[in-house]
């Protein structure tokens, strides 16, 4: 597959067109940012680690019947993906209290949430990705009721698959975000699933093994990502 023009560059990934109009190349860079870009660093190996982590997770989800945009690895830092018409919303599931939920509600970190919560956020950097609801998404045309219902169903299905996958590696899946788009009429999981977009804690010690290590200056960010990968069966060689 021929990599062509740069289509989009985000905080940590870049997207390129290819010689196939229905396929893109997703490049994972070593860039790392937090707090709406206020804290930015380059972390060696991060692009490679997240690319292979995402490929592994997407394959697991596809095997469970969840449609994803991932096709195959293109290089150590690149993947071939389907070109989706993305919905401008993020779906968030929380299995334990952490992050913005604690700040919003004044609850302590680490509370088990039964059942897990489901939230929607608008993808809008200028507005700091505000929390929204289904009614707002419908009224502003960000998604149809049918798309929202399907996104919620798929997001919870992802939770069923990944909670057990991580737990088998003695890791708690605390929370995560997903993005969806449409490919040839089918709602399809897009973007990525890596420790950049979820919270993962050691199930015994509650040690943080995700991007919070970068946000909170704990160090060992990529080492933690690789440790998670090793526990669930990913090889980064």
TrEMBL record:
It catalyses: 5-amino-1-(5-phospho-D-ribosyl)imidazole-4-carboxylate + L-aspartate + ATP = (2S)-2-[5-amino-1-(5-phospho-beta-D-ribosyl)imidazole-4-carboxamido]succinate + ADP + phosphate + 2 H(+). Pfam families: SAICAR_synt. Keywords: ATP-binding, Ligase, Nucleotide-binding, Purine biosynthesis. Residues 7-231 form the SAICAR synthetase/ADE2 N-terminal domain. It comes from the Bacteria. SUPFAM superfamilies: SAICAR synthase-like. Its EC number is 6.3.2.6. GO terms for molecular function: phosphoribosylaminoimidazolesuccinocarboxamide synthase activity. Pathway: Purine metabolism; IMP biosynthesis via de novo pathway; 5-amino-1-(5-phospho-D-ribosyl)imidazole-4-carboxamide from 5-amino-1-(5-phospho-D-ribosyl)imidazole-4-carboxylate: step 1/2. Gene3D superfamilies: ATP-grasp fold, B domain, Phosphorylase Kinase, domain 1. The keyword Nucleotide-binding applies. HAMAP family: SAICAR_synth (MF_00137). This is Phosphoribosylaminoimidazole-succinocarboxamide synthase. It comes from Larsenimonas suaedae. The gene is purC.
């Amino acid at each position: 597959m021929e990599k062509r023009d740069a289509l989009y560059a985000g905080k940590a990934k870049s997207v390129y067109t290819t010689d196939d109009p229905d396929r893109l190349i997703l490049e994972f860079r070593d860039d790392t940012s937090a707090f709406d870009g206020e804290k930015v660093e380059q972390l060696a190996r991060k692009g490679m680690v997240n690319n292979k982590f995402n490929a592994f997770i997407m394959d697991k989800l596809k095997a469970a019947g969840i449609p994803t945009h991932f096709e195959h690895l293109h290089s150590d830092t690149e993947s071939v993906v389907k070109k989706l018409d993305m919905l401008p919303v993020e779906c968030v599931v929380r299995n334990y209290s952490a992050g913005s939920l604690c700040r919003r509600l004044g609850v302590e970190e680490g509370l088990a949430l039964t059942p897990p919560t489901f939230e929607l956020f608008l993808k809008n950097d200028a507005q700091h990705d505000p929390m929204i609801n289904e009614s707002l998404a419908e009224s502003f045309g960000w998604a149809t009721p049918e798309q929202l219902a399907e996104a919620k169903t798929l997001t919870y299905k992802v939770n069923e698959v990944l909670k057990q996958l991580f737990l088998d590696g003695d890791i708690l899946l605390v929370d995560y975000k997903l993005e969806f788009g449409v490919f040839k009429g089918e709602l399809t999981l897009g973007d990525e699933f890596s420790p950049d977009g979820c919270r993962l804690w050691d199930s015994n010690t509650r040690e943080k093994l995700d991007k919070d290590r970068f946000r909170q200056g704990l160090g060992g960010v990529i080492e933690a990502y690789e440790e998670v990968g090793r526990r669930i069966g990913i090889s980064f060689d």
